[in-house]
């Protein structure tokens, strides 16, 4: 293994001790960024002071059509965002898999932190929502529960969100990631497809295949890695970097937001006296 490169298991998030790594290396890691919000709050300063870069593999924000939706919302092509609905459903635990290797890691508080479902997949939905809508969640009302026998952590979460400005009626599905459907109140629905010339420049920059072919999951990871490495190279060599790539990846800010979301939802789910709890960084 090269001396300037390191590797950790997928469940090894950054600890307080590991913060020193960000002073030496540019870092790519999976979400959630840390085991606790307390750990996460140390990282922005550490990253900012060293000038190093940190990237989280929130993969879903790097599908080209997700970037198209974000551009449409930022340009007000669909008007004011009034409502956002997002879900991430997985069913593998329903087949009595609580003793499998994957389940043991995800449902062990010592390895996964305070939440199972939210930390594993819910934070993806949260990150996708804030990225696409260009808004921030301000309050949550969370119902966390374990519906599978033997789970130490939540395996199901339903969370009501309040934003700093509303939300929207755009539909995008991971199972059909090459298509975006915009549903208008008083006009026919519009369907946008990958690889077509009417898409934004940023969308086309993150599209690798012609229209009519499905986008691959690996392509979203490739977008994150490319944008991160070119940003790192530009900073290191004092070079110019395309605005389509510079900083266009989930980083320490998104990592802190994810931990705020997880811990606030966990606290709210345990609180029977307070319906809404504000997200505080």
Automatic annotation (TrEMBL):
PANTHER family: CONSERVED EXPRESSED OXIDOREDUCTASE (EUROFUNG), OXIDOREDUCTASE. It comes from the Eukaryota. InterPro entries: Gfo/Idh/MocA_oxidoreduct, GFO_IDH_MocA-like_dom. Coiled coil: none annotated. Residues 67-170 form the GFO/IDH/MocA-like oxidoreductase domain. Pfam families: GFO_IDH_MocA_C3. SUPFAM superfamilies: Glyceraldehyde-3-phosphate dehydrogenase-like, C-terminal domain (SSF55347). This is GFO/IDH/MocA-like oxidoreductase domain-containing protein. Belongs to the Gfo/Idh/MocA family.
